[in-house]
Task: inverse folding
């Protein structure tokens, strides 16, 4: 009986030793601690801001143990969520764990397609091609980016879409067709307050084109091309103030 008790005592002691060695190996022997952090894909977002976010996450504790001490305590989803909080310019975050000691962070940033100014709230936003407002921006104009002044009575916040998909695609198509067919550059697009789908395009020639949402953009620009070629001389075109194309197959100008 005494020998049996001793056997159980030694067995329990042995298990405690094995457990202690295992815990020490997992969390305190640097076998699985995070030693390297690799960040890629960011261009506009400061590298150190992302790195600080990762380090702060690694210092947080799970089971009262800093995550940095064991890469298996790092949850990819929660780390990605922490990184997304660094900047609204971040579109996606992918986390990969390297062999034992490395964490790889792959960032995808929103690409600026245009600047959208919501004049009722006196704010401008950078938008991607899908029309998502992802950060505040200064008011500007130019030929490279899409520029829109929205006079409609509505608010806009980061993360929201600026316009219905089909209408935004219509604005983009009008801009592209004017460039391709008429060699006209779009300086700015104006959405009219209470205009029932009317909008204006300010061209690099100094005159405005008045269009309407419920008409085919392709047909409007095709008809405009013929009109400008056949009806207006170069001198008349140079002195234009506007061309009104809001009525199908009819044009009024000044």
Result:
């Amino acid at each position: 009986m005494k020998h049996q008790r001793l056997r159980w005592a030694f067995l329990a002691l042995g298990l405690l030793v094995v457990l202690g060695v295992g815990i020490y190996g997992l969390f305190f022997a640097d076998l699985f601690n995070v030693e390297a952090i690799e960040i890629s894909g960011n261009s506009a977002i400061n590298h150190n801001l992302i790195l600080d976010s990762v380090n702060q996450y690694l210092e947080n504790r799970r089971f009262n143990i800093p995550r940095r001490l064991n890469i298996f305590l790092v949850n990819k989803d929660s780390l990605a969520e922490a990184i997304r909080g660094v900047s609204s310019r971040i579109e996606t975050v992918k986390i990969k764990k390297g062999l034992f000691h490395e964490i790889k962070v792959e960032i995808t940033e929103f690409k600026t397609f245009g600047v959208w100014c919501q004049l009722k709230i006196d704010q401008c936003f950078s938008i991607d091609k899908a029309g998502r407002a992802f950060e505040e921006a200064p008011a500007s104009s130019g030929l490279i980016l899409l520029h829109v002044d929205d006079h409609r009575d509505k608010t806009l916040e980061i993360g929201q879409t600026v316009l219905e998909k089909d209408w935004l695609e219509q604005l983009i198509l009008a801009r592209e067709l004017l460039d391709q067919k008429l060699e006209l550059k779009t300086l700015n697009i104006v959405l009219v307050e209470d205009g029932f789908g009317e909008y204006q395009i300010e061209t690099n020639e100094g005159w405005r084109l008045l269009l309407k949402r419920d008409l085919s953009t392709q047909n409007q620009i095709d008809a405009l091309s013929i009109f400008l070629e056949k009806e207006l001389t170069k001198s008349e075109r140079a002195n234009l103030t506007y061309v009104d194309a809001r009525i199908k197959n009819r044009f009024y100008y000044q």
